[in-house]
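Good morning C.,

I know you're traveling, so I'll keep this short. The sequence:
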Amino acid sequence: MKWLYGLVALALGCGGGDAGPDGALEFDTVDCWDGVMSPVEDYEAECGFVQAPSVHGAPDGNFVNLAVVRYRSTTRGPQITPAIFLQGGPGGRVIDDLDALVESLLEALGDGRDVIAFDPRGVGRSGPQLRCDAELESTEPEAISSAFATCRNELDQRRVDLRAYRSLENAADVDAIRQALGYEKLVLYGTSYGSLVAQHMLRDFPDAVESVILDGVLPPTGVLDWLAETSRAEETALIAASEQCEADRSCRPDAAMNLSDTVDAILDAVVPQASDEDTFEVDRGLALAFINVGLRINLATLAVLIDRLEGAVLDQDTRDRDALERLVTALEESNNSISQLHFFSVTCSEHDRITAGELVDQGVRPAFVSSAEPTLATLEAVCDGLNLPTIENSARQGVSSDIPALLLSGQIDPATPPMWGDLVARDLAQSTHVTFEALGHVTGLLGDPCPISITRAFLDDPDAALETSCARDITVASQTMERQSEL
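The tokens, ready to paste straight into the viewer:
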């Protein structure tokens, strides 16, 4: 609950700005921001802003300023279609994280093509920033609803319309960037929520898309309401990880219990909720958060985190406890990379409501339900306060397209499980869906060479059959272990 309270507080207190004046779809260059660099040879970074209508279909005189970075190739001609990176979230920033992202992006998408990254509207360097000065008095639902109602009114007075911060406008912004940069078509690389934006592009701007890569596939909510399915997805991912760990001797060779039994023992031993906010304590929500982080990366990282939890919770090992406390700080810092008002605007306008009781009826494990319950209650209070209209039904339906598409899923992904990719792929006539053993969320950015090689092969010839056998050969021993040294 402390984690969710932090998200709500961030939404009510992040920095702000005002909408820019009228302007055409042009790329106005500026000096590049800190962290924007070109560590890969044969690329030069170019930074600037694209001004786009706040509401593309019905311009009302308000505009958003989209912060854009173009990594321009210096080795191949302009006939190579550029690729654009669509970040997850909703509301995930990109530009301030490029120092950690750009090398992976250029490795997967580059090979002589321009690569574009941008902060979505209201996020990061893009303006107007979404913020308000309403104060959150408590975490009671009534207080949350009241604070966000006040926030919505404040934004309206500043002519910042939250109804314009949704997936349809996010997709139209991508096409605006394409026009401003002077490209005929784009290759879309959408990760997590960005894969949903890419699907809206396929439907609304098909002539602007050459091919699409969906990495960590999120279906439109009319196909599957992924908010309602999140707890089930987490449990399904843990089951898949347990089975793979059982089959891989290098997973947890010295463990007394298998992975699934260890998780059950940890969840039985921890308290439902920490009693003292000033003292570090692993409660059920935090234990599940650690497990979720491991599932999102790969099986090797998950095994290390579960070993840490076992040591801290079951064996009372102070070294493991200290390691987890350090990781909590990193998790809290990662919250700052998401614009929470953008997240809530998309989520509240595009999803049906879901209750903990409905999760119980779906057969979700009680520990997952109890962890999700405060999140769902808080989200309902936020949505009541913002009072946003529901996105039109046509925009919630599946997207049919014959544009070449590559779909990538991690077998142990707790956020966008492989089944979700299957649901999207059935409507994409020229699609290939690849599932990677022992990998988690957004496989192309996890450092494993297999998804990168498959992505590069697809980009070289989107119509050719792909060699995907490496996806079945990923083991704990073969995975990158760099991140585990920090755990």
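Safe travels,
E.
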